[in-house]
Amino acid sequence: MSNGISKSQPETIRGLHHFAYRCRDAEETRHFYEDILGLPLTMLVRSERVPSTGEFCPHVHIFFQLGDGSYLAFFDLGDNEKALPSANTPAWVNHLALEVASEDALLNMKTHLEANGIQVLGVIDHVVIDSIYFFDPNGIRLEFAVRTATSAELEPYSNEAHKQLGAWVVEKAARLDQVGRGVA
């Protein structure tokens, strides 16, 4: 190549290690994820400084293990503040979807959450999955999902994904162009 940089393929990503969020209170978050959702607290890292930047910020970083060995993690910054929602993003957009094993497991979780005073939306049929939605004490939207489509039923989605993305890009550009020209 002319810039002297050779193209290479990225390494294979093996899976999710953890996804981290800010939490208001580590104990409140522990109660929700461990006592209500059943995810064991497996590690707590306490530090006075941010390891990556050296910035002074006393905090704890707590980890809850999922069935596949990955983790949900939370930072309690010691100020009783939770992350603020994004002003330009509807509350339903950013969420974490966790998979359950069966339709019965999904219904049992819905019943369990409601018995613990948690408002649940759904069951929603998304054609390839069924889901329920709810919020944790930090305002993070969570989804429990169960796969309802077989690999064969998912294949057409995979085969069409790039084509459909291309069509969306064209449609979006046209819509934004109309907005830019004052045409609603």
Task: Give a structural overview.
The structure is a single chain. The chain is of the alpha/beta class and 184 residues long. It has two domains: 14-83, 2,3-Dihydroxybiphenyl 1,2-Dioxygenase, domain 1, CATH 3.10.180; 87-177, 2,3-Dihydroxybiphenyl 1,2-Dioxygenase, domain 1. The protein has helices spanning 26-36, 103-115, 151-180, and strands at residues 18-23, 41-49, 56-65, 71-76, 95-99, 121-125, 129-135, 141-147. The chain has a four-stranded mixed sheet with strand order 1-4-3-2. Strands 5-8-7-6 form a four-stranded mixed sheet, covered by helices on one side. A hairpin with a 3-residue loop joins strand 6 (121-125) and strand 7. It is globular, with a radius of gyration of 21 Å.
Which key features would you list for this structure?
single chain; 184 residues; alpha/beta; 2,3-Dihydroxybiphenyl 1,2-Dioxygenase, domain 1; four-stranded mixed sheet; 8 strands; 30% strand; globular
Gist?
The protein is an alpha/beta fold and 184 residues long. The chain has three helices and eight strands.
Strand content: 25-35%
Mean pLDDT rating: 94
Uncertain residue segments: none
CATH class of the largest domain: Alpha Beta
Strand elements, count: 8
According to CATH, what is the topology of the largest domain? 2,3-Dihydroxybiphenyl 1,2-Dioxygenase, domain 1
CATH superfamily of the largest domain, please? 2,3-Dihydroxybiphenyl 1,2-Dioxygenase, domain 1
Computed structural class? alpha/beta
Q: In one word, what is the shape?
A: globular
